[in-house]
Amino acid sequence: MESKKFLFLAAIGLGIILAAGTGGVIAAEKSLYQKDPQSCVKCHLIKPYVETWTHSDFLDHQHEKSGIGCLECHQLTPQQEKQHVAKFNRKAYPSPLEEREYANDLCFRCHGSYQDIIARTKEYKEKGLTRNPHESHYGEIDCNLCHKMHRPSIDYCSQCHQPVVNKPGWKALN
Could you give the domains of the chain? Predict the structure, then answer.
């Protein structure tokens, strides 16, 4: 069994080394992983995250239903990929994994500008909301303050107001 694991890890390492020199191999592999995140589970300790992506009330599952794979948001450089293989070999991944926060620009690539999002949620009552959470007196806030992917999202407004979002996959602060 150990020899199979060694061969598997050696093949991954060789692929990363080749990819670092060519760039094309990584692009081909990323395309595969974007289509089948189950392949990520084979190398990383992320099974719980892939499970919520596959079946949950969380936003990652909403992305899955839209055909968005892991690497649409979790893009890695060749150097980061090497670091991941090294961490895997050393069994050095923290559990649970550290929460990653992204700049709003990553969200805006697919969801449009903040103004676009405000306009899309202006009919908030039809969406089951008590107010438009994106048209806040705080102005433009970080998307990830409320929106979480692999765990319940947070109704940030509810720390002072009645809950805005009362749906599965969300939790109020009050």
Answer: 2-90 (no CATH), 104-172 (1.10.1130.10)
What's 56's DSSP letter? S
What does residue 165 show for φ and ψ, rounded to 5 degrees? -115, 120
Cβ pair 69, 30 in contact under 8 A = no
Q: Which two tokens stand for residue 16?
A: 């990363």
For residue 6, CA distances in Å to 82, 90, 144, 159 come to: 16, 13, 38, 51
The share of the chain scoring above pLDDT 70, in percent, equals 75
Q: In this structure, what are the phi and psi dihedrals at residue 20, rounded to the nearest 5 degrees?
A: -60, -30
- Side chain identity at 40, as an amino acid letter? C
Between CA 29 and CA 109 the distance in angstroms is 22
* 127 close to 121: Cβ distance less than 8 angstroms: yes
Reported pTM: 0.72
Sign of CA dihedral 22, 24, 28, 31: positive
